[in-house]
Amino acid sequence: MLFPNKSICNKKQKKVVSREEGNQHIIENRSQYTIYHYHIDGGIIPHEDTSGERCDYMVEATAKPQPIVFIIELKGSNLLKAMQQIEATVKRFGEKLSKYAIFPRLVCHRILSHDILDARFMKFIEKYPYTRYGARILSDII
Q1: Is residue 3 included in any domain, yes or no?
Q2: Banded model confidence at residue 45, pLDDT cuts 50, 70, 90
Q3: N or C: lower Cβ tally within 10 Å for the chain?
């Protein structure tokens, strides 16, 4: 476990929903993996902590052959800012995340085409090939 005793879901929960300000990321746990859902911004890292940016949620799943972690940022329309928050989270928890496949998830109210085409975002996707992004609702099935 990334953060012992900090999960906000049941270990075999079938559906995990991260939501904020009208945006949602949904994971359907069809494989019945052991799963842990963490509220990062305002939970694991208190709002008072000003030591840097961080994502909104993480979801850890005991997938085989390698465990996975969804790093989730829910945003208004600033996809590049969401990307920075995910990168900062990976850096902050680097040692804890070293054995996981990293699945960044960026959910914005709206996605701007110039953000998707930005060189910084292209490099981010090269670095994290499991990246997905979407407007309002994004779903994964594991």
Answers
A1: no
A2: very high
A3: N
How far, in Å, CA of 50 to CA of 60, rounded?
25
Could you report the per-residue pLDDT of 70-109, keeping only the tens digit for each? 999 999 888 899 999 999 999 999 999 999 999 999 999 8
Query: Which residues touch 127 (CB under 8 Å, ≥6 apart)?
Result: none
Q: Is 124 part of a structural domain of the chain?
A: yes
Token pair recorded at residue 56: 């909104």
* 124 token code pair: 């981010």
| Summary count for the chain: helices (H), strands (E) | 4, 8
pTM tops 0.90: yes
Q: Is the dihedral of CA 117, 121, 125, 126 positive or negative?
A: positive
Query: 43 lies in which domain range?
Result: 15-141
HSE-CB for 135 with a 13 A CA cutoff: 7
Tell me if 1 is assigned to some domain. Answer: no
- Beta strands at 23-28 and 137-141: parallel, antiparallel or unpaired: parallel
3-state secondary structure string across 37-94: EEECECCCECCCCCCCCCCCEEEEECCCCCCEEEEEEEECCCHHHHHHHHHHHHHHCH
